[in-house]
Amino acid sequence: MTKLNYVLCWLGRYSLLTIIAFGAGAADTAVGQEKPAEPAVKALNNAVLSKLPFTKQDDFQDAARGFIATLPDGLVTGPNGNVVWSQKDYAFLEGTSPDTVNPSLWRQAQLNHQHGLFKVVDGVYQVRGIDLSNMTILEGDTGLIVVDTLLSVETAKAALELYYQHRPRRPVVAVIYTHTHADHWGGVKGVTTEADVASGKVAVLAPEGFLEHAASEGIIAGNAQRRRSLYQFGPLLPKGERGQVDGGLGKTISLGSLSLIPPTDLIRKSGEKRIIDGVEIIFAMAPETEAPAELYMYYPRFKVLNMAEIATHNFHNLLPLRGTEVRDALAWSKHLGEAVETFGNESEAVIAQHHWPVFGKDRARNFLINQRDLYKYEHDQTVRLMNQGFTAPEIAEQLELPQASPMSGRTAVTTAPCVTMPKRSTRNILDGTTTIQRTSIPFPPFRRPKSTSPIWAGRTPSSGAHAKTSKTASTVSWRRSQTSLCLPTRPTRKHAISPPTRTNSSAIWRNPPHGAMHIFMPLLNCATAPLKLAVARR
Predict the structure, then answer these.
(1) Distance (Å) of CA 110 to CA 58, 257, 515
(2) What three-state secondary structure class fits 76?
(3) SS3 state at 127
(4) 8-state DSSP, 202
(5) SS3 per residue for 144-156
(6) Could you tell me the sign of the dihedral formed by the alpha carbons of 89, 95, 101, 104, in that order?
(7) Other CB atoms within 10 Å distance of the CB of residue 265
(8) Chain CA centroid to CA 14, Å
(9) Distance CA 156, CA 259 (A)
(10) How confident is the model at residue 401 (pLDDT cuts 50, 70, 90)?
(11) Residue 88 DSSP symbol
(12) Residue 475: phi, psi to the nearest 5?
């Protein structure tokens, strides 16, 4: 166990250093900053404003409620003064959404920009916006129970110290990992030590299967997954309205030290209870949802339901762009239904390990019901269309939430393109998730323009002209698929460089999911990777 823990932590640090070195120069380049949104993209984004209830301020009120204090600019630095986390570069989020950002993503980014220590109810506090995830702190009779320890040791330590600046300095007596993803356990050594856990001073609780799944993602697929995370979360992209705007679940990932202390107490089934420092916790298992091993919990003393990452303020991805095990939308909806039936009538607030709480018994229950129906709808409609003979890309092009659905306005931001959602339900698990910019969202065959014969190759100045002709947003996917014919060549081939640049900017700026935006952004600065067009023969 100790050896596995050591290997996992070492690999995490090594992979993070590789990521930083790989992208060190990325943030210095204003990727696509000089290019305005195309008219079709501007029109689509304006249409979003008229379709969704942007005048509602409930979420902003919930996100600000209970605010106590924060770190200046949300800044967290490492031992050598390196910036591990900062909210300073997101000051551009004031005002209305620009033409280059989907209004739903802009709204989500503004909400995720609120950071600091917040009081949920007496005895329950959260530190939000100091990393991708939240740290929840429960006050026991003599000590603290920390739920999820963020991604990095540095951010976890800063979050706990922020709490101590405004609340009594009680010792940490327990840590709870809600699930297997590193942004919920990587900072554990910022709140406790291996010695305190080994001596029994601190208990570490986790769902059954936690260490096995954490190790499988962190070791077996660790390097690949962290490399792909660069594309999904875009931490090294320049911040701005034409750059990295938000990560959906939070701003982005922190760039600090990863740690892990194995759990000492495993939760194996729903209904298990623990009394920790006088606080009763009722656990419920939710495997095969956001993570293969995941739990959520209810705190009767506080009448607060903590949904971990099973119910957040977005449509969570089912087929992650960075990797990880795919999610089961049907199982997800069932677990949400169980939460409604078991705790929906008791909970006066619902919190999660991302985003902000929902207050009030009726609002909290409705939030869970809407989340349940969202995942069930995606599953059912995908299967219905699949049985009619449609493929995953074809289903994704036509699958939309009904206007009557409350979630059509509440969950406008997803953490992955809707194109990837049906792929889970149709079991096309690998197709379309390569993070290759020109092929990650293919144009469905039945909608390809007839004049798609590959006639643009050659050495004349008109090379690439055909890729420029499709200006409407409806053919952006086709334009991008055609630029997959581009191959590296001499730096003078500007006519071939320009179509993929413009095509990917259109794909970025009309897309509410953050992951899709970040995948396409590296190609916007094509001067460093000149391209030419070649004939593809089938």
Answers:
(1) 13, 27, 17
(2) strand
(3) strand
(4) S
(5) EEEECCCCCHHHH
(6) positive
(7) 13
(8) 23
(9) 11
(10) confident
(11) G
(12) -110, 15
CB 184 within 8 A of CB 291: no
Q: Tell me phi and psi for residue 106, to 5 degrees.
A: -60, -45
In sequence order, what DSSP letters do the residues of 378-435 get, joined into one string? Answer: HHHHHHHHHHTT--HHHHHHH----TT-THHHH---BSS-GGGHHHHHTT--STT-S-
Indicate the pairing of strand 304-306 with strand 295-299.
antiparallel
8 Å CB contact between 128 and 114 = yes
Q: What distance in Å separates the CA atoms of residue 126 and residue 6, rounded to the nearest whole number?
A: 29
Q: How many CB atoms lie within 10 A of CB 528?
A: 9
Q: Which amino acid is at 333?
A: S
Which distant-in-sequence residues (6+ apart) come within 8 Å of 387 by Cβ? none
Supply the mean pLDDT for the chain: 79
Enter the tokens of residue 165.
């600046």
Q: Which of 110-124, 350-364, 514-528 shows the lowest per-residue confidence on average (mean pLDDT)?
A: 514-528
Q: Residue 216: how many CB atoms within 10 A of its CB?
A: 16
Q: Is 372 exposed, middle or buried (0-12, 13-18, 19+ CB in 10 A)?
A: buried
Residue 458 has pLDDT above 50, yes or no: no
Q: Which residues pair with 126 in a beta bridge?
A: 118, 136
- Residue 50 neighbours by CB distance under 10 Å: 8
Count CB atoms within 10 A of the CB of residue 73: 14
Record the tokens describing residue 106, joined without a space.
């802009």
Residues 263 and 194: beta-carbon distance below 8 Å: no
Q: What is the pTM of this model?
A: 0.80
- Secondary structure of 13-81 in the HEC alphabet? HHHHHHHHHHCCCHHHCCCCCCCCCCHHHHHHHHHHHHHCCCCCCHHHHHHHCCEEECCHHHCEECCCC
Distances (CA, A) of 25 to 22, 229, 238, 251, 291: 8, 17, 10, 20, 33
User: What is the distance between the alpha carbons of residues 488 and 467, in angstroms, rounded to a whole number?
Assistant: 17
Instruction: Confirm if 351 and 124 have CB atoms less than 8 A apart.
Output: yes
What number of other Cβ atoms are within 10 A of residue 181's Cβ?
A: 24
The whole-number average pLDDT for the span 406-425 is 48
Contact 461, 495 (CB under 8 A): yes
The percentage of the chain sitting over the pLDDT mark of 90, rounded to a whole number, equals 51
